[in-house]
């Protein structure tokens, strides 16, 4: 084995991995989750099916990683929420951005596919909690704790529950398509949550 | 055609329809939604595939009707929520029952299957809103209006939003398996919702 072979192979592997993840995202957007298959991903990414199965145990796992790859920070920095000292303004900014993402057809289709996988696959749900929702929730809770210290939120508020009240109604409205996803809706959720958990 | 032939045929049709719906529910509970097929339903119900396709356009539609059939009232009575005059007690009763259903493995598996179908099929989502969620929400809103008249809930509260705050967090926790579904959790949701929308 030459000294250059390993880096080359590693570069090729990374190129294949990225091609597979990009192909997965493209296919989900184009045909929807139900019609995406490992075969189609392999063909689109110009790799063999076995290459995919070597790295991922299931279609759900590839889909999940294709989303995680989108969020990989180039600089490895952690996530932090804005903290202007005004919890209502800061949460409205964050929730308006989330509502806008959910209302965006390009974004919503792959995320809907991911949600379906999560709902039906307890292992994937656990991965989602640990790798994606967990770090996001930690960042949100850090901001909520700052609001507690500033006396803008009840000191004994259950922060997991606060986050569920902020995001659960939005998730339900989006999943069931029961109402419009507007900036005003985002504002309403923030206002009622702060009323429910005020000191 | 004899005069008795039509009733006989109608009875046979109804028997087949009920057999198909029962087979659908049984299969979902046994093997999960992903592995239920029209073929398996037909085999289990002892009917031909064409009989199923004559009445339902898709697997999702059969599944949906198999749930609706469960809720068909023998006496055709409408749905109404308890109204003791105490909105907090009445909502806790209702939400504790819902939480218990979601925590019940026998119930949760087929309902999870239905949720998946709804999330991915806008037509089914519309049917769900009209035929199942709509009538339930009307009953809940009637109880909330009574609480508004009694001064226990803000007169200008958006009742759709009140229901989203009551049920959205529960849906999220259940779908993502992020926390326990307990009577105490049901109580917390009722209490925070009433705080958020108090007069």
UniProtKB/TrEMBL annotation, chains A, B:
Annotated coiled-coil segments of the chain = none
The reply to whether DNA-binding figures as a keyword in the UniProt entry is yes
Residue stretches making up the HTH tetR-type domain? 14-74
Q: Which domain of life is it from?
A: Bacteria
Task: Write down what this protein is called.
Answer: TetR/AcrR family transcriptional regulator
Kindly list the residue ranges recorded as spanning the membrane: none
Q: Which sections of the sequence are annotated for DNA binding?
A: 37-56
**Keyword field:** DNA-binding, Transcription, Transcription regulation
Q: Which InterPro entries match?
A: Homeodomain-like_sf, HTH-type_TetR-like_transc_reg, HTH_TetR, Tet_transcr_reg_TetR-rel_C_sf, TetR_C
